[in-house]
């Protein structure tokens, strides 16, 4: 489902060159739940952003669901990203001025859907994360765990095959973090392929497989 071949990422600034990813080869099968761990600065977010087509590699090949990514022009990859990938971030990234349900509908605005279809799909996604009773609330009226559940609903509303989560429990206490992992696990059991960056061994243990990075190199 996700294949990386000899992927390298170099960040260049005027004074320094950083090899953030060094010859990464990765094969994540359909239906796998994989975690990525490693010390701060080892390249975890860079790897997730490259898998998610948010950033282009300096070298190497990326294939998603058998489709080789040939170009990184936004016009070409935005539809692929929108259709195939759902993103969850540590700091939720909700829009404070929009209600919960309007936040969840956002990814669908880039597709040809009617307002009614958008509402139905968003309601379905919110039901899956147990937040049907908070649809009209605004983000500031929610707990951290509830915000992350809204972010998960937004990530799954377009029914993506792949979910990418960058430290989804990093801002939550362990009870709320557990709740989030339970939801991710049930999405995975229902077919989603998930790649999750985490600092938490207990969370990584709940996934099928661990990828460990050190200084941009895969060591496990
Ligand atoms: N836009 C950028 N420009 C220059 N260097 C960058 C950029 N983004 C990341 N880096 C560098 O690339 C390396 C990998 O960064 P990355 O954010 O992927 O690490 P990480 O493992 O996710 O770290 P953390 O656990 O602290 O979030 C770091 O040395 C970082 O300083």
Automatic annotation (TrEMBL):
Residues 2-219 form the ABC transporter domain. PROSITE patterns: ABC_TRANSPORTER_1, ABC_TRANSPORTER_2. Coiled coil: none annotated. Gene3D superfamilies: P-loop containing nucleotide triphosphate hydrolases (3.40.50.300). SMART domains: AAA. Keywords: ATP-binding, Nucleotide-binding, Translocase, Transport. One of its GO terms (molecular function) is ATP hydrolysis activity. The keyword Transmembrane helix does not apply. Pfam families: ABC_tran (PF00005). CDD domains: ABC_MJ0796_LolCDE_FtsE (cd03255). InterPro entries: AAA+_ATPase, ABC_transporter-like_ATP-bd, ABC_transporter-like_CS, MacB-like_ATP-bd, P-loop_NTPase. GO terms for cellular component: membrane protein complex. The keyword Transport applies. Belongs to the ABC transporter superfamily. Macrolide exporter (TC 3.A.1.122) family. PANTHER family: CELL DIVISION ATP-BINDING PROTEIN FTSE (PTHR42798:SF6), LIPOPROTEIN-RELEASING SYSTEM ATP-BINDING PROTEIN LOLD (PTHR42798). This is Putative ABC transport system ATP-binding protein.
């Amino acid at each position: 489902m996700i294949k990386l071949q000899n992927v390298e990422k170099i960040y260049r600034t005027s004074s320094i060159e950083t090899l953030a990813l060094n010859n990464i080869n990765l094969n994540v099968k359909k239906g796998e739940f994989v975690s990525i761990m490693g010390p701060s600065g080892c390249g975890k977010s860079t790897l997730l952003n490259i898998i998610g087509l948010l950033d282009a590699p300096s070298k190497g090949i990326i294939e998603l669901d058998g489709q080789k990514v040939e170009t990184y022009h936004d016009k070409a990859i935005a539809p692929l990203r929108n259709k195939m990938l759902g993103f969850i971030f540590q700091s939720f990234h909700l829009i404070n001025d929009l209600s919960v349900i309007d936040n969840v509908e956002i990814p669908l605005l880039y597709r040809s859907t009617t307002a009614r279809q958008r509402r139905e799909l968003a309601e379905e996604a919110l039901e899956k994360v147990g937040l049907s009773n908070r649809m009209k609330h605004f983000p500031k009226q929610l707990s951290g765990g509830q915000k992350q559940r809204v972010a998960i609903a937004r990530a799954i509303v377009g029914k993506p095959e792949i979910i990418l989560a960058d430290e989804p429990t990093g801002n939550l206490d362990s009870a709320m973090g557990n709740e989030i992992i339970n939801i991710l696990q049930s999405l995975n059991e229902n077919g989603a392929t998930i790649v999750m960056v985490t600092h938490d061994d207990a969370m990584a243990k709940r996934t099928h497989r661990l990828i460990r990075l050190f200084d941009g190199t895969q060591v496990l």
